[in-house]
């Protein structure tokens, strides 16, 4: 199971529920090194002292806040802990809101909450209350030396802590150029056909059927390079990868929707069960008919061959008669 990254308690009112925080996600990004293409030597990232130009060991690196130019206040790990002990040890619930009312772009990183020692009963109470009311808890929590706004959500039998962006970190949606209706809007016919397509493509939520296919394809390409021995060969740019410079086309949305529904229908037909076999009598009759046709064709070919043989022999005999007549003369 994932490691514990934080220990503390959920706090709301006078209730205190001991919990531990565990990661609810993991990264599958490929770990790529930067190389010098001339000799394929790795390029390291060094921490350089900007005054001396020399490398600084990690033990000598501290964090500092610049309150004026070139003037710093140094902060240690203990300073971060002592800044607000209560904040660093509690998921402090501020209020409860309708879970469905939180816009999705506020969510950032999910974490699992697990009850710690003597926290099971309070955990179960909070979980069941939130489940029945359909509420999410908005809370403040300090993780990795940074305070986060967070939402406590119910999922199955667990509570999930999802860190969120603060309001000033979210750009105003009003700045977007969005369709305003009229010619830019969708017609009732288009909406009706689009709904049919959505209904046709609807299925149960099954995230395990999706994979990072780009990562898989990249790993296959890496494996192929290793097997072929081209471990240091740079692949030239493909012409197909160049961006298209064609102008924008007028989109016939109804035609696209019709074609999409047609393709879905053909695919469903291809996946349908195979047609039943014809009865034995009909199959036998077909075989007999096929046999008769084959016999007729064979007879025709034989007759044609005989006629051709007769013509050839007649042609051969004719010159012989002529030569005999000349001799007699």
TrEMBL record:
Domain Ku: 53-181
Organism (species): Cupriavidus pampae
Similarity comment text for this entry: Belongs to the prokaryotic Ku family.
InterPro entries reported for this sequence: DNA_bd_Ku70/Ku80, Prok_Ku, SPOC-like_C_dom_sf
Region (Disordered): 264-329
Record-linked PANTHER family: NON-HOMOLOGOUS END JOINING PROTEIN KU
Gene: ku_2
Role: With LigD forms a non-homologous end joining (NHEJ) DNA repair enzyme, which repairs dsDNA breaks with reduced fidelity. Binds linear dsDNA with 5'- and 3'- overhangs but not closed circular dsDNA nor ssDNA. Recruits and stimulates the ligase activity of LigD.
Keywords: DNA damage, DNA recombination, DNA repair, DNA-binding
Basic residues compositional bias, start-end: 278-299, 318-329
One Pfam family named in its UniProt record: Ku
Extent of Low complexity compositional bias: 300-317
Name assigned to this protein: Non-homologous end joining protein Ku
Description of how the protein assembles with itself and partners: Homodimer. Interacts with LigD.
């Amino acid at each position: 199971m994932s490691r514990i990254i934080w220990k503390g308690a959920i706090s709301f009112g006078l209730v205190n529920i001991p919990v531990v925080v565990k990661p609810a996600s993991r990264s599958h990004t490929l770990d790529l090194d930067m190389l010098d293409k001339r000799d394929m030597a790795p390029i390291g990232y060094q921490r350089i002292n900007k005054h001396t130009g020399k490398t600084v060991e990690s033990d000598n690196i501290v964090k500092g806040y610049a309150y004026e130019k070139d003037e710093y206040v140094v902060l240690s790990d203990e300073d971060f802990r002592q800044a607000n002990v209560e904040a660093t040890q509690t998921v402090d619930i501020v209020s409860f809101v309708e879970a469905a009312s939180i816009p999705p772009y506020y969510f950032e990183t999910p974490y699992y909450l697990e009850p710690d020692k003597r926290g099971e009963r309070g955990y179960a109470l909070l979980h069941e209350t939130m489940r029945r009311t359909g509420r999410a808890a908005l809370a403040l929590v300090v993780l990795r030396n940074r305070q986060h706004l967070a939402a406590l959500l119910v999922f199955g039998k667990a509570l999930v802590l999802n860190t969120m962006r603060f309001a000033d970190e979210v750009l105003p949606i009003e700045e977007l150029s969005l369709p305003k209706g009229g010619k830019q809007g969708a017609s009732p016919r288009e909406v009706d056909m689009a709904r049919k397509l959505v209904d046709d493509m609807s299925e149960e939520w099954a995230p395990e059927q999706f994979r990072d296919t780009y990562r898989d394809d990249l790993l296959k390409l890496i494996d192929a390079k290793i097997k072929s021995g081209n471990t240091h060969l740079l692949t030239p740019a493909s012409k197909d990868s160049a961006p298209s410079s064609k102008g924008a086309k007028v989109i016939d949305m109804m035609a696209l929707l019709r074609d999409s529904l047609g393709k879905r229908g053909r695919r469903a037909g291809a996946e349908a069960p195979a047609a039943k076999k014809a009865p034995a009598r009909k199959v036998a009759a077909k075989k007999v008919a096929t046999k008769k046709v084959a016999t007729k064709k064979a007879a025709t070919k034989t007759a044609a061959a005989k006629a051709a043989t007769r013509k050839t022999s007649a042609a051969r005999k004719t010159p012989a008669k002529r030569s005999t007549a000349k001799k007699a003369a």
